[in-house]
Amino acid sequence: MRLIDADKAxxxxxxxxxxxxxxxxxxxxxxELLGCIKDCPTIDAVPVVRCKDCKHYNTxxxxxxxxxxxxxxxxxxxxxxxxxxKRLNKESEDD
Length: 95
Known about the structure:
Blueprint: H1 6-20, H2 28-38, E1 57-58, E2 66-69, E3 74-77
Antiparallel strand pairs: 1-2, 2-3
């Protein structure tokens, strides 16, 4: 299984059908095709913040690829993530 942007897929299908005229738009064939995508199961996926991009992550005096999480008070790898991750804003670190 893989996650896709179903809204973008519908846009691209409509664009392709408009260009190729493979099947006429706004017909039962068109709606059946779009229904196949819209009826697919969805997953409540949320973007994660990897430690290397988190404001709680500190790599001072750590081996390459590893650091210390100030939030959970333990060592982690750059690609680890948790529910408390907050994206590091390079411009402002006040949040």
